[in-house]
Amino acid sequence: MPEAKTQSQDSKQTDKAIEGLIKDLNEDLAREYQAIIAYTVYSNVLKGAQWMNIAGELKKHAGEELQHALIIADQIDYLGGMPTATPKEVKLSEKPEEMLRFDLDNETVTIKNYRERVKQAEALGHYALAEQLRTIISQEQEHQHDLATALGIDVPKVLGQGA
Ligand SMILES: [Fe+2]
Ligand SMILES: [Fe+2]
Fold first, then answer.
1. CA 39–ligand 2 middle distance (angstroms)
2. Residue 31 alpha carbon to ligand 2 centre in Å
3. How far, in Å, CA of 115 to CA of 149, rounded?
4. 87, 37 contact by CB (below 8 A)
5. In angstroms, what is the span from residue 2 Cα to ligand 1's centroid?
6. Type and span of the H or E element at 117
7. How far is the CA of 15 from the centre of ligand 1 (A)?
């Protein structure tokens, strides 16, 4: 948006907040790319009867993460930003448990971030974005649950009240 001399302090603050939201959504998008890559690779690397079930789940996750990436990129564009083309780093391991642990940790970070993003979107009156983020959060929680179940551990607690 071009700077106008008549622009009020309030609208300058809003512009700044939108810029911050775009920057943070690009971090979310980079995490979605990371998740697509990780689930694509891990689902093919996991071998052995005990991992067959979760390998199938991971393939489904990969498709859902792609849907999330498309939604986030679309929203960044709508807000006037440029969607990033760079994923966050994907860690690799020979050990199935370690791969699942990487995924689980990433999902937990992702959920924390999206909860923060819901608050930012609502503070700016972007309620439709907040709704879309909530739908994504509920899928990320399912991913987290699938991974924790496969690892035989409790679902990690995510700080903050629900979204
Ligand atoms: Fe996602
Ligand atoms: Fe996920």
1. 9
2. 9
3. 23
4. yes
5. 33
6. helix 96-123
7. 27
Task: Please count the residues of the chain.
Answer: 163
Cα of 140 to ligand 2 centre, how many Å? 4
> How buried is 18 (Cβ within 10 angstroms: 0-12 exposed, 13-18 middle, 19+ buried)?
middle
The alpha-carbon radius of gyration of the chain (Å, integer) is 18
How far does the centroid of ligand 2 lie from the alpha carbon of residue 128, in Å? 21
Measured CA to CA, the distance from residue 19 to residue 106 in angstroms comes to 25
Ligand nearest to the CA of 58: 2
- Read off the amino acid at residue 69: A
> Position of tokens 């993460």?
65
**Dist CA 66 CA 89 (whole Å):** 17
Greatest pairwise CA separation for the chain in angstroms:
67
Per-residue pLDDT of the chain (163 residues), as tens digits, is: 555 556 688 899 999 999 999 999 999 999 999 999 999 999 999 988 999 999 999 999 999 999 999 999 999 999 999 999 999 999 999 999 999 999 999 999 999 999 999 999 999 999 999 999 999 999 999 999 999 999 999 988 876 545 4
